[in-house]
Amino acid sequence: MSNNVLEMKNIKKSYYGTTVLHDINLSLKEGEIVGLVGENGAGKSTLMNILFGDEVIASTGGYEGEILIDGKVENIGSSFDALNLGIGMVHQEFSLIPGFTATENILFNREPSKKSSISSIFGDRLDTLDRKKMKDIADSAIDKVGVKINDSMLVANMPVGHKQFTEIAREISKDNLKVLILDEPTAVLTEKEATTLLMSIKNLASRGIAIIFISHRLNEILDVCNRVVVIRDGFVVKDSDIKSITIDEITKCMIGREVGERKRDDRNFDGKGVIMSIKNLYVDMPGENVKGFNIDIYDGEILGIGGLAGQGKLGIPNGIMGLYDAEGDVEYKGKKLDITKPICTLEEDIAFVSEDRRGVGLLLDESLEWNVSFLTMQVKNKFLKKILGGLISYRDNDEIKKVTDHYIEALNIKCTGTKQKARELSGGNQQKVCLAKAFAMAPKFLFVSEPTRGIDVGAKALVLDALKGYNVKHGTTVVMVSSEIEELRQICDRIAIVSDGKVAGIYKASEPVEKFGALMIGAGV
Amino acid sequence: MKEKGIKKFIHDFGVPRFIILCFLIALFILAPFVGADLPTQVTNLLNRFSWNAVLVLAMVPMIHSGCGLNFGLPFGIIAGLLGGTISIELGYTGVLSFVMAILFATPFAIIFGFLYGTLLNHIKGGEMMVATYVGFSAVSFMCMMWLLLPYHSPTMVWGYEGKGLRTTISLEGFYDKVLSSFLEIKIGNLSVPTGAILFFALLSFIMWSFLKTKTGTAMTAVGSNPVFAKASGINIDKIRTLSVIMSTWLAAIGILIYEQGFGFIQLYMAPFNMALPAVSAILIGGASVNKASIANVIIGTLLFQGIVTMTPTVMNSMIHMDMSEVIRIIVSNGMILYALTRKTDDRRDA
Q1: Could you tell me the residue ranges of all domains in chain B?
Q2: Rounded Cα–Cα distance for residues A126 and A119 (Å)
Q3: Among B213, B224, B231, whose Cβ lies nearest the Cβ of A323?
Q4: What is the distance between the alpha carbons of residues B17 and B11, in angstroms, rounded to a whole number?
Q5: Per the CB 3.0–4.6 Å rule, which of A146, A212, A291, B46 could disulfide with A501?
Q6: Domain-embedded: residue A320
């Protein structure tokens, strides 16, 4: 037997038929810090949710495989199970009560208490809190983290860094803590706070707590971890000692699918006409703010926009399409574009395929016919037939059926017919319907946002081919936003990487993948 | 396998609807045994259908645009009442008084609908609850106005003081039965209010046509997924307001049709109790909180009014107790409750 505190064996998980985790094996020794890295959507969060017994997992059919704690197989059905087994988690979004002090948050529902005359009659739930003891425990926990936090300060009044430390203090104040999961703890911290945090992580590990450390900042991983595990598409692709790996290698493992496989010829658009010029674009999209984005887009090219989640790449198309508050100068074909209302952009024959397929992209409860034809009908007054001598226009159901049938065939959409509801299709086929919706409008300019998110490999290839084909056949300029750099490299002419709401750099798509990787992680941060 | 088929049928048809249908059929079978005359019962049912159907139809536009069930129906009803009373006040009689009532009610319905729609656009997600209370307060406000507005027609005001409208105003000589008696068919004890049914058919046809136009399609899409509609360049607030205006106008027309059949204008607290029966009728007809069709309106009104007309005659003679009001309340409130729970169910499936 090994002295593994935690062992995850052959973990599998799928959501609604899409397999997210294929076969994950992960083990953790006492006092070890393992860095867990992977692109967005690689399965890191799902894996951690399984380990922490998140209710999403149970409500979507549980997981397959075994989790062993101290060599014993345990079934983690809820977060309570996880807590009892000594697993603690510090979430990306804080789970603290803003109106409570640091101490109260740290010891919430585990407060030491004193008997009082009332509680001796009505039971334990009416014990009085032992404030002094609470303060002692909280203080010692905060000490262990190695920072100075005022224990009586309300969480609402704290700077983000302190909130983060309070969460960590809460976890380590638990006596039975064996495994601590830190989900991007440094993302919200300043550099100095991050350094303090890394110190305290090392400190905790030396006390025998095993730590899973999730971060996009690879330098930190190299700094504190003993081992690094790279996850990609639901597989562990690398499990290596930290000493025998470099940042470049990790980056490559994270994003490199078929590194260097480019299936198209280089096209040169330098000197060709600029179709859209974006200057100083600011978009207020929560979690994806754009802060001063500038770019010239050439007529007929496929431009890729990449970058890590939260850096603002999604805000760009959403802002220009008028779905979120935006300001800035967007010139389209030499004219200023009004980006405050969706209709203004749409009327210029600019279409958008949203990253939020189910929320924005589809009428889930309506037929495919409606989904494909609606946009074109509303914007371009097509698919209508006049009756009573033009007095009233009805939907032209024959035309609508024809165009829907056309796209079902052209994009190979698997469905029972044009009348099927969009909700009943699989993710990949829903995405194709979204594309069909945009194509039906015959756009001159097309924004596509995360077109392959959450769909399987086969459908991915089809969607990408469809986009590429449409660009070549109709000369439509395509701007594709994606977190998967490899996918952008497959079909784009140029790729712009967005970091902190601005362009970090623009390269030709044929440049080696490492160059983009370096831009994405803000090389040397 | 067969059993599964029946179960599936009942599930698709809706359990409560199935129970109500069975209950109604049982009532019709029982009717002759307790001495009720079947043609008279059918006549009653058709009459009540013709009075209420347009009020139920008024639910359709707002359900389509995602504003939910129109618990603010009293708004439209008040517009209709204003139209009716103004028409009488100005001395119109006969068929003309009905036409003028519609004309006078229309601007009120449009203004009320616009204000009500603007309000609903500010409280997206809580439409149904807010609408209920706003509707109620409008009714109470009008209770004061009916007394204060300068009406003078002797047929309408309190006799002893000469001002202030009476709670119930007879329509004899005005638009009493103007639609119901038009082309009325009479066979023995059975009579069919053809005119009123035709008028409902006309309004239904206009509604059905509208839903097939570009704007109608947009309205359905706004209800189905507002973000999708917005991304397709639709002005959501405008479409929603339009649907509320349509609904309010249909309610105004609906109450005028109800009055011409019933023979009286009822003021003061009467509009208070009009919304719930209409809401539950369309739900019994198979509509949900965000989907409704003309067929739902017809089936729902027939089933609901069937229960209301049949229970007094049949049940009373069987158990010698007036159960009809109790059953009506259980059915209407129970149906609304059922529909609202179904709404969360659908979400969970997603």
Answers
A1: 38-272
A2: 5
A3: B231
A4: 10
A5: A291
A6: yes
Per residue in A281-290, pLDDT tens? 999 888 888 9
Helical (H) or strand (E) element with A338: none
A147 with A203, same domain? no
Residue ending a domain, choose from A141, A156, A173: A173
Question: Cα dist. A443→A375, A383, A436 in Å?
Answer: 11, 16, 11
Same structural domain, A158 and A183:
no
The pLDDT value recorded for residue A261 is: 55
Is residue B334 classed exposed, middle or buried when 0-12, 13-18 and 19+ CB atoms within 10 A define those classes? middle
Whether A260 is covered by a domain: the verdict is no
Cβ within 8 Å of residue B25, ≥6 positions away = none
Domain extent at residue A211: 1-86+176-255
* Euclidean distance between CA atoms A316 and A326, whole angstroms: 9
Report the complex ipTM. Answer: 0.80
pLDDT of A235 over the 80 cut: yes
Does one domain contain both A478 and A394? Answer: yes
Among the partner residues A347, A366, A393, nearest to B214 by beta-carbon distance: A393
pLDDT per position as a tens digit, A151-163 = 888 888 887 778 8
Domain presence at residue A465:
yes
Q: Is the pLDDT of residue B348 over 50?
A: no
Chain B contact for A362 (CB, 8 A cutoff): yes
- Answer yes or no: is A266 within a domain: no
Q: Is A385 on the interface with B (CB under 8 A)?
A: no
CA distance B100 to B115: 24
The fraction of chain B above a pLDDT of 70, given in percent, is 93
Which residue type is seen at B48?
Answer: R
Identify whether residues A39 and A185 lie together within a single domain. yes
Phi, psi of A203 (to 5 degrees): -60, -45
Compute the average pLDDT of residues A384-391. 78
Measured CA to CA in angstroms, residue B236 lies from A362, A384, A398, A406, B225 at distances of: 16, 21, 27, 30, 10
pLDDT tens-digit profile of A446-490?
999 988 876 766 677 888 888 988 898 888 999 999 888 878 888
User: Are the C-beta atoms of residues A180 and A171 closer than 8 Å to each other?
Assistant: yes
Rounded-to-integer distance, Cα A473 and Cα A487, Å? 20
Mutation for testing the B interface, residue in A363, A383, A448 having most B CBs under 10 Å = A363
Give CA–CA dist A370/A401, Å, rounded. Answer: 9
Q: Give chain A's domain count.
A: 3
The reply to whether the predicted model has a pTM over 0.90 is: no
Hey, of B65, B208, B217, which one would you mutate to test binding to chain A, going by the most A CBs within 10 A of its CB?
A: B217
Q: Residue A296 is part of a domain; what is its CATH number?
A: 3.40.50.300
- pLDDT tens for residues B140-166? 999 999 988 888 888 888 878 778 888
